[in-house]
Specification:
Elements (H helix, E strand, L loop, with lengths): L17 H9 L6 E7 L2 E6 L12 E2 L4 H9 L9 E4 L2 E4 L5 H21 L4 E4 L15 E4 L13 E8 L3 H5 L1 H8 L4 E6 L4 E6 L10 E4 L3 E3 L7 E3 L5
Parallel strand pairs: 8-9
Antiparallel strand pairs: 1-2, 2-3, 4-5, 6-7, 7-8, 9-10, 10-11, 12-13
Length: 239
């Protein structure tokens, strides 16, 4: 599998406070650890060994679970005006969306919606909604094609046909860490729209160790979906 890309910037994970740590500890979030502590805003702990195994004092990062993340959010830990997402156990502050990013996202969502309608597809185009990917990840992609748009909670992983992220400053993260969690979750297809490089990267064939090297589509070319038969959209005019 391909190594993570290294261009652009990565978002910074939010640092937790002592109050956040105490709230989680009281709720039993660290029951799987014989020791837990907060160091420079990061959670560390000594895992509880399986029965019959000798104890070890080795310390490892503690990944937040989705229920821990939701508990902190309900308690107002991230601020009422701050949008966040949970990626592999870490909470990231989502970047402000300015016109270049917003235009590309809205335009691509519109094109996908029209193309799906013309095909008579039951898939729905959702924007900026949480997706359930497992115990430690609940990202909010820019665009999601789902067969289950209605209901409570996050969009179910099994309903997702395609995820799209539009990138200006976080290309490294979108092609690296986020691509890895989508592949590990078995997301069939993942697009990254690189507005600066004017390319669209198509990931497919997910595996536990990542996607194979993505196909790079230059703006101006037609991009065809791999997971949705006959679905294709133009990339002209996204910037």
């Amino acid at each position: 599998m391909n190594a993570p890309f290294r261009h652009g910037m990565s978002p910074e994970a939010l640092r937790l406070t002592v109050d956040d740590f105490l709230l989680l500890k009281q709720a039993g979030a660290f029951s799987g650890f014989i020791k837990s502590e907060l160091l420079e805003g990061e959670l560390w702990g000594v895992p509880r060994p399986p029965d019959g195994e000798p104890e070890s004092d080795a310390t490892f990062p503690i990944k937040l679970r989705v229920e821990d993340y939701d508990r902190l959010d309900r308690a107002g830990a991230f601020g009422k005006d701050v949008k966040t997402e949970l990626v592999d156990g870490l909470v990231y502050r989502m970047s402000p969306q300015y016109r270049q990013h917003g235009f590309a996202k809205d335009e691509l969502a519109y094109r996908l919606r029209r193309a799906l309608e013309q095909l008579g597809s039951p898939l729905h185009v959702a924007t900026e909604q949480s997706v359930e990917l497992g115990p430690h990840s609940e990202p909010q992609p820019d665009i999601v094609l789902t067969s289950e748009p209605r209901g409570e909670g996050a969009i179910p992983r099994k309903s997702v046909a395609l995820i799209v992220e539009v990138s200006i400053t976080t290309l490294d993260f979108d092609l690296g860490e986020e691509a890895m969690i989508y592949a590990e979750a078995g997301i069939l297809e993942y697009w990254v729209v690189d507005l600066k490089g004017k390319k669209l990267y198509v990931h497919s064939q997910p595996a536990p160790d990542g996607y194979p090297k993505p196909a790079a589509i230059s703006f101006g070319e037609l991009v065809a979906s791999i997971s949705v038969a006959e679905l294709s959209v133009e990339t002209t005019g996204l910037v």
